[in-house]
């Protein structure tokens, strides 16, 4: 370890308990990547703070030493947002897992950043409430990570993303100050830009979230279609009829095949596509709309419709969809998970183009998507034992993002940019757009020490940086870490 | 070259300002009305070159909000930027220019059975002004405020560069969300020129259920009972003096059933109507308007602190409300009411911010009250507008 980092490590040791600072290379290696495992770096030092004051002290120590730092929640991110720095500090929130308050009367909860998403719902459920953002990783991901990524889930079609459910964040700013960013306070909506900034504007140490009333009823159906086009027609018809379902998910034949192999979900044989539609809300509303959804699916050519009679049957319908990512492991030695967005109406054209891409390149693509909001998760399959296969898969995966941009969509709907997609940002945004976004970063973090190298392909120079910064430029040496 | 001539070279509609066009009494030297985004960018570039202080103007419904600008050399009027650029109804998305009046937008969307789920408390107000002030009404209970509905934004920066963030898809986490940052920024970060919104279907049926409440305790009880019920209201409001009102939207069978549930819940005085009750969706009467943040449990305290006659209150279950103070109230008394409101609400993490006030009151009150993250806000402002030429002095801490 470099002398500078060593000095910082001992300073951190003095600030925190000795069991809260990790420098042992073997233990450090457990933190070398997040859910995106093809980017790795062993962190210089790992710290496990258990209070906001400790986080503030760590950030101040890093700022004084000119050392970069990265926050990490559960490490489930899929864009390398929590990828550590070999020359920096990784701040892990796993000891900040207290649910501080469940305030039913005000429909909110106050939690520490390391609290697991589903634990908020577990704590609220006895009161008839839940935390609405439901990423598929909700059993393991942290609320702090959700805030950073502005995570969503299958149900964000109706209920919105994390940004819509966070009322305030206590934040340690890059100069080590503890401030509260609240949607209810006067002034700029800094909370609004902090959420979704992928941990580049500070470390959140306490989060006030909105709790949502558990709906009176939930109704779920599975509809099987001969083709993706027919499924897409049903989706358009449902949205066009003014129905706002809680979720509409679609899977194509290849992903159904994978799910069948993995979990025997028992979806209708011969389906070219299945659609899962869930409605929730007051009973009388749901009853009327559900009948309409069923009719629209039939009109669009559904050859089989299954309606969940109870929670167990609902879980069965969802099993196939929820296992789809892991399940493709059954039909392919390796795969890439892509995350792109298109305007929903472009679904048929884009899927046809993905088919063509797949045919041209010989790379198989399984399609799973949040059909209601046009968020595609193509799974690009390859054999990592075959020379060149990974590169071909990367190319197809990248070409799919280009298709999304071409159709007015986005390069990421929920997984974030991180290190993975920073290079695609200039395809979606102009230089001026990216420069303007980074003005915010310069306001928060002029020294560029807070999770540097993420989101933006090239850092913006922030002009005169107040205070003297020691050590190398934070962006120097980035290339040899990745 | 004179500033007027320099601007006239890049913009088809430039003229000297008139005294009647003063922003809270500060008369602009010039008024420019660009007719396109490109023209707006040119105007801003020339303003930067000539070091002109710029204040954007929409339909003037909220130009007298906040504090007066320290300087106003150039009013940039958005009335010619009034196109509905795109209505992708199949995607439930619309893109509008800043000067488009909200009611014209609503008409166009309604033609295809859709709406932007934002109320328009002040008729005539524009898209740009609504976003710049973060304005919303009763529907905020379910749908939030502009920050929750803006999915893409185009702005012209202080230096004349055009910058976009977000896009035209609802689900999108690529890059920082400048849309949320610009909502409620009062023209101090840049000129908003185009906004893309997510839309919702116009509901097939709607009904209001209202009940009378005799005192703050009853108001609290009624609100809590609706809040924790499963009826999923689109809006839940308290309206002084003494009404709790709920808006239900959905399919006809659903709305009827839910209205029935609510009348049982709310007791004898409950009434179902198909028109909005008095005071719905407008700011309370008064010449001083105070915006309050008050979570549901703060409601009875808010009402107790504003129990004087002639003081009007509206409050939304999202935890926000407005207090209107009468024109006869002496400036010192306004300051006292504001002070006691702030003390009361502070205990509930609530705030009170003056939105507009008559001239004699303006000098006597602190418009904003405590602003916890002010230092950070100044640093963001310095990045976007290093010369402090955009609506200088209009915002918190003199920003
Ligand atoms: C199987 C699987 C399924 C998934 N499904 C979904 C899905 O449906 N929807 C979805 O949106 N995502 C999904 N994800 C991605 C991921 O789970 C989310 O992005 C999640 O929010 C990350 O949380 P985390 O605690 O693991 O954060 P990490 O991976 O640890 O960190 C993510 C980012 O947050 C920052 N961060 C963490 N804590 C803080 C903090 N306290 N303050 C500031 N910044 C912080 C990090 O620096 C990093 O940039 C999935 C991932 C997996 C592995």
CATH class of the largest domain in chain B reads: Alpha Beta
Bound molecules: flavin-adenine dinucleotide
Looking at the chains present, what oligomeric state does this protein adopt?
heterodimer
Reported by name, the CATH topology of the largest domain in chain A is Alpha-Beta Plaits
- The level 1 CATH classification of the largest domain in chain A is Alpha Beta
Q: Please mark out the parts of chain A with pLDDT under 50 across 5 or more consecutive residues, or reply none.
A: 465-482
By helix and strand content of chain A, what is the structural category?
alpha+beta
Per DSSP E runs of 2 or more residues, the count of β-strands of chain B stands at 19
Mean pLDDT of chain B: 96
Give the overall shape of chain B. globular
Distance linking N and C termini of chain A: 18 Å
Broad shape of chain A: globular
Please work out how many helical segments of chain A DSSP would assign. 16
Organism (chain B): Actinomadura fibrosa
Keywords (chain B): FAD, Flavoprotein, Oxidoreductase
Protein name (chain B): FAD-binding oxidoreductase
Cofactor (chain B): FAD
What are the main properties of this structure?
heterodimer, A: 482 residues, alpha+beta, Uridine Diphospho-n-acetylenolpyruvylglucosamine Reductase, domain 2, Uridine Diphospho-n-acetylenolpyruvylglucosamine Reductase, domain 3, Alpha-Beta Plaits, eight-stranded antiparallel beta sheet, five-stranded antiparallel beta sheet, globular, B: 399 residues, 4 domains, binds flavin-adenine dinucleotide
């Amino acid at each position: 370890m470099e002398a500078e980092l060593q000095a910082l490590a001992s300073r951190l040791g003095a600030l925190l308990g000795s069991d809260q600072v990790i420098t042992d290379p073997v233990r450090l290696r457990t933190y070398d990547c997040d859910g995106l495992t093809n980017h790795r770096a062993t962190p210089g030092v790992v710290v496990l703070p258990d209070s906001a004051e400790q986080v503030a002290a760590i950030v101040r120590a890093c700022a004084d030493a000119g050392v970069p730092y990265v926050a990490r929640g559960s490490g489930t991110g899929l864009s390398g947002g929590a990828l550590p720095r070999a020359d920096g500090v990784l701040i892990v929130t796993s000891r900040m897992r207290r649910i501080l308050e469940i305030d039913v009367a005000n429909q909110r909860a106050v939690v520490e950043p390391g609290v697991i998403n589903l634990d908020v719902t577990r704590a609220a459920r006895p009161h008839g409430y839940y935390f609405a953002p439901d990423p598929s990783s909700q059993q393991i991901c942290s609320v702090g990570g959700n805030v950073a990524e502005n995570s969503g889930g299958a149900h964000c079609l109706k209920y919105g993303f994390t940004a819509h459910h966070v009322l305030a964040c206590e934040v340690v700013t890059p100069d080590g100050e503890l401030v509260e960013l609240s949607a209810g306070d006067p002034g700029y909506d800094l909370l609004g830009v902090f959420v979704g900034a992928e941990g580049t504007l500070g470390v959140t140490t306490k989060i006030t979230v909105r709790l949502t009333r558990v709906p009176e009823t939930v109704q779920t159906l599975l509809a099987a279609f001969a083709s993706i086009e027919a499924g897409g027609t049903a989706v358009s018809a449902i949205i066009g009829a003014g129905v706002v379902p809680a979720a509409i998910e679609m899977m194509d034949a290849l992903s159904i095949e994978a799910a069948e192999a993995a979990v025997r979900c028992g979806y209708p044989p011969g389906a070219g596509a299945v659609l899962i539609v869930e409605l929730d809300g007051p009973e009388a509303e749901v009853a009327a709309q559900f009948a309409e959804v069923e009719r629209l699916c039939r009109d669009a050519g559904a050859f089989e419709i299954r309606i969940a009679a109870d929670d167990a049957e609902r879980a069965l319908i969802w099993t196939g969809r929820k296992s789809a990512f892991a399940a493709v492991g059954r039909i392919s030695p390796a795969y890439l998970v892509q995350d792109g967005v298109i305007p929903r109406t472009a679904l048929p054209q884009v899927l046809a183009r993905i088919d063509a891409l797949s045919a041209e390149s010989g790379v198989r693509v399984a399609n799973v998507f949040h059909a209601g909001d046009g968020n595609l998760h193509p799974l690009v399959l390859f054999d990592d034992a075959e020379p060149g296969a990974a590169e071909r898969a990367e190319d197809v995966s990248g070409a799919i993002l280009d298709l999304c941009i071409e159709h007015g969509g986005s390069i990421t709907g929920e997984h974030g940019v991180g290190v993975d997609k920073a290079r695609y940002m200039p395809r979606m945004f102009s230089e001026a757009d990216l420069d303007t976004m980074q003005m915010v970063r310069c306001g928060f973090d002029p020294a560029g020490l807070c999770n540097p190298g993420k989101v933006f392909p090239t850092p913006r120079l922030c002009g005169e940086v107040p205070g003297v910064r020691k050590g190398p430029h934070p962006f120097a040496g980035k290339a040899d870490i990745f | 070259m004179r500033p007027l001539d320099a601007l006239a070279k890049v913009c088809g509609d430039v003229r000297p300002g008139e005294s009647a066009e003063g922003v809270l009494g500060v008369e602009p030297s010039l008024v420019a009305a660009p007719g396109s985004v490109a023209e707006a960018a040119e105007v801003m570039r020339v303003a930067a070159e000539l070091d002109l202080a710029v204040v954007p103007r929409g339909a003037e419904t909220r130009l007298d909000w906040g504090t007066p600008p320290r300087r106003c050399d150039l009013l940039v009027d958005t009335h010619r930027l009034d196109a509905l650029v795109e209505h992708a109804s199949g995607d439930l998305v619309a893109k509008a220019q800043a000067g488009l009046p909200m009611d014209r937008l609503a008409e166009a969307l309604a033609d295809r059975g859709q709406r932007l789920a934002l109320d328009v408390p002040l008729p005539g107000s524009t898209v740009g002004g609504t976003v710049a002030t973060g304005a919303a009404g009763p529907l905020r209970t379910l749908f939030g405020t502009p920050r929750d509905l803006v999915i893409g934004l185009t702005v012209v920066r202080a230096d004349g560069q055009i910058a976009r963030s977000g896009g035209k898809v609802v689900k999108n986490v690529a890059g920082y969300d400048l849309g949320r940052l610009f909502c409620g920024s009062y023209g101090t970060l840049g000129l908003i020129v185009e906004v893309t919104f997510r839309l919702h279907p116009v509901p097939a049926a709607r009904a209001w259920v209202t009940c009378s409440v005799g005192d703050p305790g009853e108001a609290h009880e009624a609100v809590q009972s609706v809040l924790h019920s499963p009826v999923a209201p689109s809006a839940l409001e308290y309206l002084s003096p003494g009404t709790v009102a709920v808006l239900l939207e959905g399919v006809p069978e659903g709305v009827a059933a839910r209205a029935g549930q609510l009348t049982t819940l709310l007791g004898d005085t409950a009434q179902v109507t198909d028109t909005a009750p008095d005071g719905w969706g407008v700011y309370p009467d008064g010449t001083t308007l105070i915006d309050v943040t008050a979570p549901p449990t703060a409601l009875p305290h808010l009402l107790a602190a504003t129990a004087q006659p002639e003081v009007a209150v509206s409050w939304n279950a999202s935890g926000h409300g407005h207090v209107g103070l009468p024109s006869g109230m002496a400036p010192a008394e306004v300051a006292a009411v504001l002070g006691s409101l702030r003390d009361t609400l502070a205990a509930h993490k609530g705030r009170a911010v003056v939105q507009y006030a008559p001239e004699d009151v303006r000098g006597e009150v602190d418009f904003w009250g405590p602003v916890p993250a002010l230092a950070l806000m100044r640093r963001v402002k310095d990045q976007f507008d290093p010369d402090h030429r955009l609506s200088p002095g209009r915002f918190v801490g003199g920003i």
